[in-house]
Amino acid sequence: xxxxxxxxxxxxxxxxxxxxxxxxxxxxxxxxxxxxxxxxxxxxxxxxxxxxxxxxxxxxxxxxxxxxxxxxxxxxxxxxxxxxxxxxxxxxxxxxxxxxxxxxxxxxxxxxxxxxxxxxxxxxxxxxxxxxxxxxxxxxxxxxxxxxxxxxxxxxxxxxxxxxxxxxxxxxxxxxxxxxxxxxxxxxxxxxxxxxxxxxxxxxxxxxxxxxxxxxxxxxxxxxxxxxxxxxxxxxxxxxxxxxxxxxxxxxxxxxxxxxxxxxxxxxxxxxxxxxxxxxxxxxxxxxxxxxxxxxxxxxxxxxxxxxxxxxxxxxxxxxxxxxxxxxxxxxxxxxxxxxxxxxxxxxxxxxxxxxxxxxxxxxxxxxxxxxxxxxxxxxxxxxxxxxxxxxxxxxxxxxxxxxxxxxxxxxxxxxxxxxxxxxxxxxxxxxxxxxxxxxxxxxxxxxxxxxxxxxxxxxxxxxxxxxxxxxxxxxxxxxxxxxxxxxxxxxxxxxxxxxxxxxxxxxxxxxxxxxxxxxxxxxxxxxxxxxxxxxxxxxxxxxxxxxxxxxxxxxxxxxxxxxxxxxxxxxxxxxxxxxxxxxxxxxxxxxxxxxxxxxxxxxxx
Amino acid sequence: xxxxxxxxxxxxxxxxxxxxxxxxxxxxxxxxxxxxxxxxxxxxxxxxxxxxxxxxxxxxxxxxxxxxxxxxxxxxxxxxxxxxxxxxxxxxxxxxxxxxxxxxxxxxxxxxxxxxxxxxxxxxxxxxxxxxxxxxxxxxxxxxxxxxxxxxxxxxxxxxxxxxxxxxxxxxxxxxxxxxxxxxxxxxxxxxxxxxxxxxxxxxxxxxxxxxxxxxxxxxxxxxxxxxxxxxxxxxxxxxxxxxxxxxxxxxxxxxxxxxxxxxxxxxxxxxxxxxxxxxxxxxxxxxxxxxxxxxxxxxxxxxxxxxxxxxxxxxxxxxxxxxxxxxxxxxxxxxxxxxxxxxxxxxxxxxxxxxxxxxxxxxxxxxxxxxxxxxxxxxxxxxxxxxxxxxxxxxxxxxxxxxxxxxxxxxxxxxxxxxxxxxxxxxxxxxxxxxxxxxxxxxxxxxxxxxxxxxxxxxxxxxxxxxxxxxxxxxxxxxxxxxxxxxxxxxxxxxxxxxxxxxxxxxxxxxxxxxxxxxxxxxxxxxxxxxxxxxxxxxxxxxxxxxxxxxxxxxxxxxxxxxxxxxxxxxxxxxxxxxxxxxxxxxxxxxxxxxxxxxxxxxxx
Lengths: 606, 606
Hints:
2 copies of one chain form a homodimer. Among the domains of chain A are: about 90 residues, CATH 2.40.50.140; about 120 residues, GAD-like domain (Gyrase A, domain 2), CATH 3.30.1360. Chain A contains 19 helices and 23 strands. Chain A is globular and about 95 Å long. The model of chain A has no long low-confidence stretch (mean pLDDT about 95). Strand 23 of chain A pairs antiparallel with strand 23 of chain B.
């Protein structure tokens, strides 16, 4: 029944096929003349095969004059082994070539708007690439990226399938419940003045599936957020969304790590459970200044010397600590010769981006400590500092004194920058770290209210739950216990890969009374709770199980696995940075009739 | 590392587990008292296990009084074999029960708004079921449906994966190109007055992927159509979308049939390539009056007697034929005793729904032919009719005389109805038929113009392509060759399963000049072509390959496989028939601020 038009693809012929008559289809990747012969690199998704047109062998040889780059050809010919010295070891088909007996120009091509080789692409404006995305996607790097992306997602899915997870599709046409990011709205044609919304995530639906008893759910889910363009964001993105009932954090982690171990094989990357570390949020901030530390970086851990310098003579340090700030630093090994005044000034610029007012330093020289601030410290204080940082001759210690968040953010940034500069990162490795025990709340200074650090649906840990259940019955109670609440922890977890957050999850609240208290703490009125989440909270009155889950940002993970420069390189048809699609010229104007049917108008006043 | 909270699920304990101590989690499906003991059917996604509370064994026995239906319990107990006569053969766990040593009410439940047993569900308003969808989904039938749905889609996907297909995600935030059904629009916040649209299908994107050289693509794709509610439609639906380059119809069919054969195993349904028949559109209409015949029905094929009756004395028949109509009929075997005047009148009512003015009949009795119209026919004519229909004593022949479409539609409807009435359909079987050689165009009487029977992107067959290329250069040419164009065929194909269209596909046009002529024939202005499809047609200038594909309506297929009454029974969170979601109360009003940000207003005039 099968009737294959081609006998082989352009990536599969080998020395074993010599003397076979084959039919190939492919695009003209490049061509060159050699004597009377013409050599063409014929390309398809699977590879490149060299084909040879020769006047004495090839029927209709004269037509070759019409061939140009990216013409689509079909050729019939005989596989020959290349003569010695002309084989191409970088190509799997490099030992053979196909001598063309007959061929057909299946479709011609206009001159391309840009070249498809790496160099040309680097010099091509991204919007032009996106306008001709179908050409951009012909590049072997891009083809590989999307084939790998597909395989990676399949591998994750298969492992979950094998563990009794059910993939269930949740609606794309959902309810608007803005909270955090903006919803993208869809005007309803049947109910004028009412709107559906694209889901920011399947969060509430997946939790309802747990209430339904589906026990182990996942979905490769498209999500939508109308956030102001941050680097590497798109209006739509894909996440691996997962939820489980009757489980523990350890079981969930183990299952997820197993899926990752399987899926990373697609990239020939051997990872094991040992590559997954664990740290609490507080410890991560203390040691690395970050809630997504890069575990490929060894050393340069931050040390807190606030206690030591609280009463020292250096006013910048002691004043900072007395005003509730912190002094932390890190020791960079053996860089003393490179760390000129100019170099340190440039590091200071980095620190300033994160709000630091300056950068203090100590250099450990053969002749003792060298630093402009040395005069403010006693011998004993200096010795203690050297001890704390385990500093040796040749090292440089950097310090930031400021309020907590600035100290941590700026030292984290410096640590990452220096690790790159000093070549301390093994780019071939993948290192993961689970971060636990996130704060339950943070204080929104601007609006003078609590907000949830993770999500209002995340479960407080046992101690926090007890505190809230015993003490909170109103928004006023929350203000009263501000300090206590800010110290509470949630049963939340993130996963960072190579210093990038790739996953976020939590145990969910499944008890209506507790959920209500959380909403009270973040100052949501009962009316608003009812309107936005009443339909959802109702479900908890019917024997809801305890459940937990997480969501992975797949675009970002694939981008990292591919070593791609942008998330747009791993999305087939992305919008540009301004959320315009140069390919389809979208968004675009629509007929007035369409708007009339939807009962909406474009605002005239701006 | 693993720390399982439950030792087993509620579906897996067997006689081999007797005397094991187990921990189960589940919902109280039902309970009964027996003496001092309480028996509970504990249910989860995997099954039901009988658990027994006994005062002398169960810790905290008195708390059982508080248990109600759908309470969530965790129990620790010992597996015991049931005493003879009390086993339950309908249940996989029916040979054992668990004697509870300790238990916990994990979460209580309010009284449900409706019972979860079949009878209660039948008497429950569908909107109420949808409002409490998370309870509706607890029913074992529903759980099975979604687990099977997931497995079925996975099986299809895996087979395609194994055949080098790449799943590539295409945008959900796309361009509005209304054509046929209405687009659902998304106002752009960044570009006021412009709109994105949800894709009606990935059609254009997948064709661009072929231009990119991805060669074998598929996607489990969400699609969106704002069509006026037809039976079993939703605003969003899921299709298996597939496209291939460098292939033949036979190869595509074979691959797709293989995937189906694999996937049907999920439903323990053994199908083979032999269950896939092939028929041309014209033959299907001629023999069955339908372009989606139900191949489970044997016999009752339609016969055309137009030639025979063109000059007969029965004016209804001869007049019809002379006016360009047709007379067709079908023979129903052995029903003469059942086909009273009243019965035939009721069949006539069916025919009338499809526009027929009446239904003529001949009954073949032991004493010759019996019919009110017998007097209009000669002996010879009657003999020929009997011969054509191969009618035997006991049979009844039904006739419709009218214009072609009415004859075919009404006889198709009668054939399906009678097949059910006469029990001629084996409901356990799945019969497929590929329908080929669809007409390229049809004539839109209302708007006095051509439209494409399938899609404007479908390739004419060779003869048709030649005709168009040679004769058509403008919309005027098309009108001039109206009759010829209406006879042309396209390289299109549908697949019908048990008389329902489940798939539609075609070879695509990949030649810009031909595509332009097709748009001319359907009277699309160059301006409109450029605005709507210019960005797309441009791609064909760069060595586009010949490609073909198809799309399967997965919701409908799963519905049929499940024997579900409605498509809503196989979609986790569907809208109701009025496209309202009773669960989330969506669509809903949004904040004025959201609309201001989007630059739109709700129209005041209606």
